[in-house]
């Protein structure tokens, strides 16, 4: 059997899991190369805990170079070109040939329309989360607006978790009666893909905590000087603005001809293969249409399971096995609420005619489960 080279683009959850799983399943003569522009892997589910002061940056990051000890080659650098026809990628101006390619570059945040002021923060990345933490610690009164600029965006629960955690944070500081927390979103209900029952339940959760939910708003622009958000139908003021920027597929993926009508990478919904043989895409970068016409949410849990499926299938191909595993569309999500509690939902997003999702009663068990999951994550993959 000839040695094969598998190149994985992206060191997020999908990339790290697929690299680990492939290394476990394949002989050492096969090369597994993981490429990421960042030095560290960031565990995104803990980002909100960092904003609240419950975590430090070093607690939710791990150096990707640690994977070298496992026999995974880590290359830090920007992916400059993907050439699926000629089975190559260019990184750090060097050409790398591959036999199999896994694209797990995630969704890119487009921050071009977000003014840079000391009142506006992108809390969806580590760079923005750190100053967000400082800002909420010094905030004493006024309106905090949480703005979802456009659909789709990754981790659909996160803006609602942020609102609930801010309510908890300021209640503990005895400042809550001076602070107005509002969510502005193009969605009609929170987490719309999961259905009306779940959406109404989350809406009720936030409204019970005196958080205003403003749905169905088409975002136009932000005026940093006037501290205003302009929507198609109205204008809203803010004293502190936490933004979920518009999400898009990275230009390098578009240039490679991998994106489809949705603007995201088109894949087979079960095998995650793109239109090119032996080229797969997983996680937030993909656009998978469900039976009800909506798109599969962009969440780490799907990247996780998709990575396992793709790794299994690549390993089987290399070993000459005809067995093929399929991604079944199942996933779950925690919803942090403060007060040591969290909500939890899970189900089958590939169910017809609509996803079949079960919402469990919020409680301390789910918050503890998320803490344990964070610990397990770093132990398992690093």
Compose a concise summary of this entry.
The chain has helices at residues 13-25, 47-52, 126-138, 158-172, 196-208, 251-255, 300-318, 364-381, and strands at 5-9, 31-36, 40-42, 61-63, 73-76, 79-83, 88-91, 94-97, 100-103, 108-109, 120-122, 142-148, 179-184, 211-214, 219-223, 228-231, 235-237, 240-244, 247-248, 279-281, 330-338, 341-348, 356-363. The protein has 382 residues and is an alpha/beta fold.
Note the main attributes of this structure:
382 residues; alpha/beta; 5-stranded parallel β-sheet; 8 helices; 28% strand
Description:
There is one protein chain. This protein is α/β, with parallel strands linked by helices and 382 residues long. The protein contains eight helices and 23 strands. It has helices at 13-25, 47-52, 126-138, 158-172, 196-208, 251-255, 300-318, 364-381, and strands spanning 5-9, 31-36, 40-42, 61-63, 73-76, 79-83, 88-91, 94-97, 100-103, 108-109, 120-122, 142-148, 179-184, 211-214, 219-223, 228-231, 235-237, 240-244, 247-248, 279-281, 330-338, 341-348, 356-363. The longest helix is centred in the C-terminal third of the chain and has 19 residues, at 300-318. The radius of gyration is 21 Å and the shape is globular.
């Amino acid at each position: 059997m000839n040695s094969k080279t598998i190149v994985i683009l992206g060191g997020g959850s999908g990339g790290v899991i697929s690299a680990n799983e492939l290394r476990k399943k394949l002989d050492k003569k096969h090369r597994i190369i993981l490429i990421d522009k960042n030095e560290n892997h960031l565990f995104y589910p803990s980002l909100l805990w960092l904003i609240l002061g419950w975590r430090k940056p070093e607690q939710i990051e791990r150096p990707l170079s640690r994977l070298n000890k496992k026999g995974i080659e880590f290359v830090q650098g920007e992916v400059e070109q993907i050439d699926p026809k000629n089975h190559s990628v260019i990184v750090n101006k060097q050409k790398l040939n591959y036999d199999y390619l896994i694209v797990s570059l995630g969704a890119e945040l487009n921050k071009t329309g977000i003014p840079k002021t000391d009142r506006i923060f992108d809390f969806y990345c580590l760079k923005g989360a750190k100053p967000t933490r400082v800002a909420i610690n010094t905030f004493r009164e006024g309106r905090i607006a949480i703005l979802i600029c456009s659909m789709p965006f990754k981790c659909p629960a996160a803006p609602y978790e942020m609102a609930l955690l801010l309510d908890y944070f300021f209640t503990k500081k005895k400042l809550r009666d001076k602070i107005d927390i509002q969510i502005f979103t193009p969605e009609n209900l929170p987490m719309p893909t999961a259905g009306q029952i779940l959406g109404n339940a989350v809406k009720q959760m936030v409204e019970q905590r005196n958080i205003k939910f403003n749905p169905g708003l088409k975002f136009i622009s932000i005026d940093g000087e006037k501290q205003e958000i302009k929507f198609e139908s109205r204008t809203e003021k803010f004293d502190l603005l936490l933004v979920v920027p518009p999400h898009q597929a990275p230009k390098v993926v578009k240039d490679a001809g991998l994106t489809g009508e949705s603007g995201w990478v088109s894949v087979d919904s079960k095998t995650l293969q793109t239109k090119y043989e032996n080229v797969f895409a997983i996680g937030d970068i993909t656009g998978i249409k469900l039976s009800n016409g909506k798109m599969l949410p962009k969440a780490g849990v799907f990247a996780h399971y998709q990575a396992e499926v793709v790794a299994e299938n690549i390993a089987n191909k290399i070993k000459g096995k005809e067995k093929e595993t399929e991604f079944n569309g199942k996933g779950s999500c925690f919803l942090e609420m403060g007060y040591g509690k969290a909500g939890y939902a899970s189900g089958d997003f590939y169910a017809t005619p609509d996803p079949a999702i079960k919402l469990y009663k919020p409680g301390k068990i789910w918050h503890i489960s998320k803490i344990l999951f964070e610990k397990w994550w770093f132990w398992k993959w690093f």
